[in-house]
Amino acid sequence: MSALVLECRLPGMLTTVQDGGRWGYQGKGMPVAGAMDLPSFRRGNILAGNDENDGAIEVTLLGPTLFVAEGEGMVAATGADLGFQINGRPAPMWTAVAVGAGDVLSFSGPLSGCRAYLCFSGGVDVPPVMESRSTYTRARVGGFLGRALKKGDTLRCGAPLSLWRKCEGLVCPEGLRPVYPPEAPLRVVPGPQDDLFTEKGKDTFYGSEYTVSNSADRMGYRMDGPEIEHTGAADIISDAIPLGAVQVPGHGQPIVMLADRQTTGGYTKIGVVCSVDIAALSQRLPGQKVRFQKIPLDDALALAREEAGKRDELRRLRSAWRSAPGEPVPLPVSGPDLPSRGEARIRVDGEEHRISWEEIREVE
Amino acid sequence: MEEKKYPRILTAGDGCVVAEFGDSIDMEINSRAAALGNEILRLGFPGVLDAVPTYRSLAVYFDPVATDVKRLYSRLEELCGKEESAAGHEKRRTIVVPTLYGGEWGPDLDDVAEHTGFSPEEVVRRHSGLDCYCFMLGFTPGFPYLGGMDPALETPRLKNPRETIPAGAVAIGGKQTGIYSIASPGGWRLIGRTPMRLFDPDRDPPIFLEAGMWIRFRPIEKAEFDEIEAASLKGSYRPVILGEEEGSS
C-alpha cells in the first residue's frame, strides 16, 4: 500500500491547500489563512480517517480535475455541491470513498454554495511553513509553493492512519452536516468598537438587508446596503482584526473579514460574526442577501460547543463504523505512556503478526 | 461623550478578547500591551491560540470550545491591573538593521534631501542617528510600524505609488519611517535597502522583529551589503540585538 499521489490535470478557479490555519504568528503580522468553511473541512477530514485539521484541498466554484497517479486511499468531498465526480460519474459527497491509481476526481459545475473540500486519508502533505500547510497567496507562503494549484502540479498525501481502509463507506448523516439556509441571518456578537456607532447606525446594521458585493474573496466580503452611521470618525488607531470582524469604514458599508484578512487594521468594528456563521457566509456568492442578528457572547459560545459536539458525534460514528465489521484490535501494551497510535510486530508460535493501534478520542 | 476608563476588556467575538490600555499612540501604553502579550503566552492559558499586541491594545485569540472564557476574561482583568507596576521594567532591546543608503538602493534619497534642505549625507546621519521604536507588526508579515524618526526628515509620500517595492526597502512616508518586509506596492520614499530579510518563512524565527523592540539603522557599504545578503539567502544571517540597556526613560 502506498500513499496517494495526485496530479492536477485542470486547476479549477481557485484550488488551494488549506488546513486549520497558521496560528501563533499574527503578532508578527502573519495572517491565519486556513479553510474558509471549517465545519465542512473538518468533517471531511474525520470521514477520511484523519485528524480534523489535516491538510486538504479547498475548491472554489469551478473545481479542478485531479488524477490519482499513485497509491490508494480514501477521499471525502464536503462543503458546497459543486458536482463532485469520480471517473466522470456523480459521486457521493459527505462519504468516505476508496480511490486508487488511475481514478479521476472532477467537478461538473456549481449546484449550490461556493467552496468544497477534498480530504484524503493521510492528509495533503505539502511542507508545513510556520507550522501550517495553509496557503496564503498574498505573501506566497504555505500550501503548494505558496500559490493556487496549476495544471501539472503533483501533490502527495501523507501515510494514512493505520485504520484508514475501515473508513470506507462511512457517511456523515444529514443531521450532523452543517446547514446554511440562504435566508438565515448571520449572528453577530457586538464589539469591540460598537460604542463608536450611533443607535441609528446600529439599528441600520441589525435591521437592514445587505447584498454580497463583487468584492468578496478569501480576505473578506464587502456588503452593499444602507449606510451605517458612526458617532464620529470611522478610523481608529490600528488594532487586531479577528476572524469574522465586521469593519465599517467611512463609506458606511460593512466588510466581514475572513480567513486571509490582514492581522491589523484601522477601521471601526461594529461586531464579530460568530464562528459557526462564518462558514455560512463563505458559502454565499456575490448578489446574495445577508442579514445580521445581534446575539450575546454566551449564545455564540453555546453555538460553538454545539458545532464541536456534532464533530465529536461523527468521530464516535467513525469509531463504531471502523470496529464493526472487523475483529477487535489488540493493544500490545497498556499504561499511561502508550503513544496514541503506532505499530508493533509480535511473534506467536513462530508466526509474525503485525499489530497497529490508534487511540479513539473519548468525549463526554 | 463619557470618559473611557483604561485598561478595559472588550469583547471581540467568540474567539477573541481585547485588552485596551488607552486611546493614543504612546510608548508606555504600547509596552504594557506587549508585556501582557508575553505574559499571557508564558502562562500557557488552556485554549489560547495567539496574542497580538498593537499600538494600544492586546488581542488574545482562543478556541471557544477549549477555553474557559469567563476565567480568561477575569485573568486578563487581573493581569491588566498588575501590568501598571511592571511597565517599563522590560529590558530595552535594540535590533541593528544594516542599511545601504542611496544609489539604486535608495533612489529617492536625493528627493528627500532636496525636500528637507539637508545634504544626502546629513539625511543618512539623521535617519541612522536616532533609534526607532517598533509599536507593532502588521500590514504584511514582518512589517514594523515605527515611531521616533527625526521630525526634520518628514517628506510627503509619492503622488504615484510604485507598483513594486522590493523587500528590504527602507523608506520614509510622511512622519514615519519603515522597512518593506515583502515585495509590495507602496508610496513611501525609498532612501535605502537592508540586505537582512525581515520575513523568511523557512527560517526560525521567520520574523526577527517584535513589538516593543527598538530599531537602529546602521549605514553600510556595498561590500558588507553583499556579504549579509548572501548569508541571508542561506538563512544563516543572525541580526545584532543589543539587549542589556536600561528601560526607556
TrEMBL record, chain B:
Molecular function GO terms recorded: ATP binding; hydrolase activity
Domain Carboxyltransferase residue range list: 7-209
InterPro entries listed in its UniProt record: CT_C_D (IPR003833), Cyclophilin-like_dom_sf (IPR029000), PxpB (IPR010016)
Listed SUPFAM superfamilies: Cyclophilin-like, PH0987 N-terminal domain-like
Residues making up the signal peptide according to the UniProt record: none
Keyword terms, alphabetized: ATP-binding, Hydrolase, Nucleotide-binding
Pfam families: CT_C_D
The name this protein goes by in its record: Kinase A inhibitor
Encoding gene, per UniProt annotation: kipI_4
